[in-house]
Specification:
seven-stranded mixed beta sheet; alpha/beta; about 300 residues; 13 helices
């Protein structure tokens, strides 16, 4: 998760707990970037998220921006910015005359550079003022609290990154406190009891050892919102992707998908034969549906809009 996006900082390349602290800061670098991009190509996740936000956000933006003299956006775990650019384009087209600022918090320097390059090529965003914070969410929180002069935002989004924070309740409380009176906090996360939730909670002992030490789905986020008395609405983003090749041991594509899905560089070398067999059985029979010989993994997400 930026990531940014789910598993956006999955830290495939990391080994051992000694690197855990560093991993939190810049764990989506090097080979992990290629792994995540490969996953996006195969899963259609960005397209599914984009379809959802394009149907929801225009109306939300009109309401948020009504009567405002300027608009301020905060993206937390924005990764390479592919989704941010689309959302900012929608916001700017809704309010073409208003000045817009975008603060971006992303722990990966490589992905931050990708985001900057994308902005430079997107002509309709040239009027937006960007501020780049190459750090993780906890460090940004510390920085904001240390400064004392707290900037408030109309719209804050955390897409596929809530898996990586140390304290879920405190993180939500902090970012909610940065909202302006009419603002919205949007969290996108894997849906409860979906494929990812089933895999990672069933094999928590084997998988939750590096960047993700406690796997979270929408269930944990919604429980947290309820405990804090926050008003919200939830939209389900339905998505599946083909993992048939994961069951062919000779398939390079299948192994690359398994590497990403388990946050390992080498799936077949990382687990015992019994664990591998159990994971593959779970993926086929509990995380997916099968039709005409093809196996489709349930990768649905929840888009949660939290009111100020």
């Amino acid at each position: 998760m930026l990531f940014i996006e789910f598993q956006a900082s999955m830290c495939n390349a990391l080994q051992g707990s000694a690197m855990a602290a560093e991993a939190k800061q810049s764990c989506y670098e090097g080979s992990a970037v290629q792994s995540f991009q490969f996953y996006l190509e195969k899963s259609g996740e960005h397209e599914a998220i984009l379809q959802c936000v394009q149907s929801i956000l225009p109306g939300e933006f009109k309401r948020i921006g009504a009567g405002e003299s300027g608009l301020d956006v905060l993206g937390v775990g924005s990764g390479g910015g592919e989704l941010d650019v689309q959302m900012l384009s929608v916001l700017q087209s809704t309010f073409p005359a208003l000045p817009i600022t975008a603060d971006i918090v992303e722990g990966s320097s490589q992905l931050s550079d990708n985001f900057k390059a994308l902005v430079s090529k997107t002509t309709n965003l040239q009027k937006i003022t960007f501020a780049w914070h190459v750090m993780n969410s906890e460090d940004y929180e510390k920085q904001v609290k240390a400064k004392g002069d707290v900037k408030k935002f109309d719209f804050i989004h955390m897409i596929q990154m809530i898996y990586y924070v140390n304290n879920l309740a405190e993180t939500i409380k902090f970012y909610h406190s940065l909202l302006k009176n009419n603002g919205r906090l949007m969290i996108i996360i894997e849906t409860a009891k979906g494929g990812w939730d089933t895999l990672w909670k069933t094999y928590k002992k084997e998988l939750c050892i590096d960047a993700i030490t406690e796997y979270r789905s929408s269930a944990e986020v919604l429980a947290c919102l309820k405990s804090q008395g926050l008003k919200y609405e939830e939209h389900i983003i339905h998505n599946t992707f083909d993992i048939t090749e994961c069951f062919d041991t000779s398939s390079a594509t299948g192994e690359r998908l398994l590497n990403f899905m388990t946050a390992r560089d080498h799936f077949y070398q990382s687990f015992t034969p019994e664990i591998r067999a159990g994971m593959l059985d779970l993926l086929r029979n509990k995380c997916s549906t099968e039709k005409d010989g093809r196996v489709s993994f349930n990768s649905s997400l929840s888009c949660i809009l939290i009111y100020a």
